[in-house]
Amino acid sequence: MYHYYKQPTISKLIHFMKLQLITNLRKKVLENKKLILFIISKKIIVAIVLMFLSGSCISTKSTLKNVDDNAPVPRLSKNNTFIITEYSKDKKYGYNKDYPINIFYYNTYNEQLNEERFLNALAGPKGEKISYTKIETCCPFPSKRTAMGAGFLNIYEIRWEGQKKPILLYLNIYEKGYLKCPVGLSIKK
């Protein structure tokens, strides 16, 4: 008795190979889906963390303690400096980020103009000529006076001849307040 073995036709071989290929592709797609979902979930977690961190940089409540919208607009002297008549009794005034000197640049195109007008009205403790340098911008806070809804403080280093260590003053150009001479300085004559 002969067993006759029938060889598969080429079309059957092609069909079998297609099935194998499709099965392998499905396995790969399933593996890739898991990998893609893992990558997407990591990116979502990173995005959420970044949103949280960026949102926490700017507080929704201001920590500034000496803002006064009713403070008068400072007057200018002949030398184009602010006329300052009062000395601050508060040792934190200007020296602490929560008690900055609120300059408020009020409609000028040069944001530093009023800072210079204020600083040029000051002198060292014994009337010495001071020099100043803006060294940093820091300390974001919410403000209705800017398009982005936040303001920043400028830190100035103040020096005069004979001084042992320079002092740092925090100036705020976004809010108003009464302008006074900080403790340890004097009003220029």
Q: Key features?
A:
189 residues, alpha+beta, 2 domains, four-stranded mixed beta sheet, two-stranded antiparallel ribbon, 29% helix, rod-shaped, 2-dehydro-3-deoxyphosphooctonate aldolase, transmembrane, transmembrane helix
Instruction: Return the structural class.
Output: alpha+beta
Fraction of residues in helices?
25-40%
The sequence of SSEs as H and E is HEHEEEEE
Question: What percent strand?
Answer: 15-25%
Summarize the biggest pleated sheet: 4 strands, mixed
Can you give me a brief rundown of this structure?
This is 2-dehydro-3-deoxyphosphooctonate aldolase. The chain is α+β, with helices and mostly antiparallel strands and 189 residues long.
Q: What does this 3D model show about the protein?
A:
This protein is an alpha+beta fold and 189 residues long. The protein folds into two domains: 8-57; 58-189, no CATH class. The chain is 29% helix and 19% strand. The strands form two sheets. It has a four-stranded mixed sheet with strand order 1-5-4-3, with no helix packed on it. Strands 2-6 form a two-stranded antiparallel ribbon. A hairpin with a 6-residue loop joins strand 4 (150-160) and strand 5. It is rod-shaped.
Any chance you could write out the topology, listing elements then pairs?
Blueprint: H1 10-57, E1 101-102, H2 113-119, E2 122-123, E3 130-142, E4 150-160, E5 167-172, E6 186-187
Parallel strand pairs: 1-5
Antiparallel strand pairs: 2-6, 3-4, 4-5
